[in-house]
TrEMBL record:
PANTHER family: OS01G0800300 PROTEIN, OS08G0107100 PROTEIN-RELATED. The keyword Metal-binding does not apply. The keyword Transmembrane applies. The chain crosses the membrane at residues 25-48, 68-97, 118-144, 164-189, 210-230, 242-270. Keywords: Membrane, Transmembrane, Transmembrane helix. It comes from Coptis chinensis. It comes from the Eukaryota. This is Uncharacterized protein.
Amino acid sequence: MDRTAEEPRDILRESINILKQSPKIFILITLTFIVPLSIAILVHSLYFESLLNLVPIRHQPHQWAKFYIIQFFYIVILFIFSLLSTAAVVFTFASSYTSKPVSFTSTLTAIPRVFKRLFITFLYASLLMIIYNAVFLGCLIGFIMSINADDSTFLYISFVDLFFLFNVHIHVTAIWHLASVVSVLESVYGLAAMKRSKKLLVGNTEPATALVFLYMIICAVIVSIFRSVVMHGSTHRFLFRILAGGFLIVVLVVFNFIGLLTQCIVYYICKSYHREKIDKGALHEHLGSYLGEYVLLQSSIEMGNVNI
């Protein structure tokens, strides 16, 4: 039997074994970081419409200021827990993969150093997103103007531009997610991690971006159902709304956890596709550096030749 065809299953099998070996740690990580992240996402979706209602049609600066202050703190909370969740899951998963003794306490000890690297990578990714949003906004304005002007040619061009930019957004998001894993498991971070991530995705860009798109769609569906049931549901079915809201929170928590694990698996698969060495000893030492152990950082890791 072709060994290459077995390797993706081997990676998934080993990932499942890791979860079975350390269920308590992953449950604690989920409760500590992923649950608050998921609740923040759903609560914001629940009250975003109400926040907009705070801003009247007439110009009132203090209402706009209140709106932007609330939005700012939401974004800060969202990305802090997002980075903390990524740091905890990636570090714990990789430690278990290398058979390095890991506990919830050791994960918490490593997070401050991991968080710093992830935050720097996040800043570069945010810069790309700001540039992207500026271009997207310009194309969106052009699209709206072409509708009002009834210019079919300009409308078509604007639509194509928006479609292209949407694909760019998904691609940049895929690079960002993989760069987050790179920032934890290798000796690079920031712009170097983004470049490294882009290189790793070569040959697996389409399946990786498809996973990102699927994640975005499922999140949007969960958020939409949550708003429809909890916010706009019948007041006479209060208990049902509470139970449904709690169920959707659990679904989003589980889905976010699976998404973080998928990032780790995609990293190993991309490394394998490029036939790079997976040196568990080097990775073991690299992870130890986050706990204050003095080591020479290395990043050569291999897992064979596989595709997503």
